[in-house]
Design brief:
Helix content is about 50%, strand content about 20%. The chain is an alpha+beta fold. Among the domains are: about 85-215, 2-Layer Sandwich (Beta-Lactamase); about 345-380, no CATH class; about 445-600, Histidine kinase-like ATPase, C-terminal domain (Heat Shock Protein 90). It has a five-stranded antiparallel beta sheet. α2 (about 15-80) runs antiparallel to α9, α11 runs antiparallel to α12 (about 425-440) and α12 (about 425-440) packs across α13 (about 450-465). The radius of gyration is 65 Å and the shape is rod-shaped. It is a multi-pass membrane protein. Keywords: Cell membrane, Coiled coil, Kinase, Membrane, Phosphoprotein, Transferase, Transmembrane, Transmembrane helix.
Amino acid sequence: MWNRIQQKLSSHSFRNKVIITSVICLVIPAIITLFITSYLTKDAMKEQAMSNANRELKLAGEYVNKFFEDMLYAVNYVQLDSEISSILKKNAKNDKQLIDQEEEYESYLENRKVSMLIENITLLGEKSYVTILLKNGEHYTNYPVSDYNPKKLFEEPWFKDLDRVFGYESIWIGSQPTVFKSEQATNPYQISVARPLRDANLKIYGYVVVTIMEEKVKQAFESLPGKEEMMLVDSSYKILSHINNEKIGTTFTYKDEVQKPGSTNIIETSDENYLYASHPISYTGWTLVSVNPYKQAIFKINSIFHKVFIGQFISFVIFFLLLTYVLQTMTKPLVHLGKVATTVQKGDLNVRSNIQSKDEIGQLSNSFDQMLDRINEMIREITETQDRKRKAELSMLQAQINPHFLFNVLNSIRMKVMRKGDYESAEMISSLSKLLRMTIDKDKGIITFKEEIDIVTDYVQLMNMRQREKVEFEVNVTDAAYLEVIPRFILQPIIENSIIHGLNQSAGKIKLEAFVRKNDFYIMIEDNGVGMDEATLTNFEKRLTNNSELVHVQNKSGFSSIGIANVFERMCMTFGNAFQMEVRSEKGKGTKITMSVFKGRLKS
């Protein structure tokens, strides 16, 4: 995969590679971050939605609990108040037909006192209907009998269950059709709590029933800010209270889903998922439940996430455009440098990038411009070197003694001289012939050091025959040095300079030494002539590097008239920086010239 990406990137420019790489390095982390955020936010949204649902259920539960606590308070008050209990127990035993007028009046006062107490215990809370029904049919209510006859309670199906209730236990009667005529038009359902009244022997002497309208419970659902569907259900998930009266008495739609083992708070259906929450109601065994479409439950949180996502996306686009602009600005010098390189490739070496920045690109541009300057300088140097080489070869060619005619004539003279017995003159003519033969052979630009020694030996013999005083020529060369190759006529100009200027054509000694040490080639030529003072030596060293010496040499009277400067120039052209020449001289003590070729510096 990485190789495939590299192949695709290789066809693009450097700027595009940088931009694409930057985009990849930004987009991939951004996508991963958004994915992780979405994944984590999904759970967070679910938890937050559950938290919101539970909070709203808790608020509704507190509101509903308040109703039921008031109802239970009324029941407990009737059961626990000693005065009411004594009156009720007494009236449950009395027979109204047997009491006299005085007892009837006393009974009236007691009954009035009970009615007043019933009225008082229901004043503080929500409106509720309290019914105290004795075994003998006598009853006490806070509502008129014309509204509802309490004796009808004996006919209710749940009434028989009161005989199995003891102590402070109560029976909670879920939503039933309202029995009070004054409420039936506006409140179709009612909710009640009932408890038997027992004496010390646990015998039932009466019953107390407290009733409120289901509409009061429904108000708790309507007052909440959420839009979820909230309801009150009993232990069998029968709906006791709902905003929609038609659903009261029916079974909770998702009963099976919430009762499954391991069920979660998400109800999954074929159409839509719903968020389910529940809150138990104290004392009753009932439960407040809420059902809300999951998308609606997380709508606000999801909306915030979408806004954050859009904000991040806009920020990313702005940052991407800014990054692209910055990268284009930063890589613009590189693009310009690439165009300059293309122009140079086409052969224009005078173009320059002229990038003035001080960063790495500026340094690269400066190095590139300097390289072009150096190339132009090297081309100029090579051109000048070739020109000098051509002039040197021309000068050397002019110095050669041609043609073959002269060589043949000399050879004929030598034979005649030998026939007359003048062997010394014949030898002199033979040495001269060898020198002439070397000058005629143009193909031998590079010869072995052995051949160069032979040339310079013949040259010294010729010079000794010309002079009255002979020069002693001592040669000390190793076998390895004989095999080295050098340009021809390298030693002759130096020997000539020693005989004519160093020894002033008088008797003297010239010593030639050559050897190879650590693969480096050394040549030393030393005479015991007049030498040079410091000023003359300095002037001589300057002439070595003066190009004019190639043609206008110091001495014209010698055999080759090439000069030491010519030797230095040709050795430099042959060996380059590997060649060095050193001149040492002292007035009255002679001159020593050392030539060295350091082969380790030679370019392969």
